[in-house]
Design a protein that fits this description.
mainly beta; 1 helix; 7-stranded antiparallel sheet
Length: about 280
Amino acid sequence: MRCVLKRNGYEAQIDTLGAELVSLKKDNHEIMWCADPQYWGNASLVLFPFIGRNYEDTYTIQGRSYRMGIHGFALTNEFAILKQEKESLLLSLKENEKTLENYPFRFELRIAYVLGDDGLSVSFEVINDSDETLPFSLGFHPGFRLEKPLEQYHIFFPEMEDPQEIGIVTRCMLNGKNTKLNFPDKCIHLNKDLFKESARIYSGMGSTAVLKNGCDELFTIRYDGFENIALWQTLDSDADFICIEGWNGLPGRYECIEDIYNAPERKVVEPKHSRIYKVRIRIS
């Protein structure tokens, strides 16, 4: 089901399947990727309760093995509408019989989309109503359309400090080869060579990313509470979009089947508590 929000020249469309943001316009100008299946058949994804892959799509809890596909299951589940108004939408995903088979935890993931005068806010609340610690990772994976060749764009990170690239293999697992970086202008200049082999994952970038074409700012995305930024487009292709993603948590390690509580940067929510993360997108 598609839900439409409108306010002050902005319009957002959200699909309840996967809580996917499929359109975001300002004054009728679309910034989201068109979900062309030739390259990537989505416009954005919510990554939960895993980010990336586990080795052999397997992880363990107290020695017992479970299966999980890339980026978890939120993207393939229908979210319930808790509340919808002209300018806002509150969605919820809870455990169900199928999720419990391979993620044996009771949880609720609430996602609120709210249009304001200056853009779209998205909040993610991970709720643990059970009596045991809830382990998870959470990511937001939006794709933004590019009207000009990739090489004409760069991404400015005004809060960048001690940046580092987190090494991964092509199938989105950690390879343990992290690299310290130096960006004197606090910018990543986009080009096709960046995406020949894998996505690029960075730490130390700060919370704010500004997509720019020359001196022109196109939009700003802010990831409050997210620790890492990932950049991706369909590998070694002429796709005309760029994903600028916020990640809390990391993929599993290549050739290592992880215990869920010991996996790299795994987050947890204590019993009867919740954790909230926020994203803001402002079109210039």
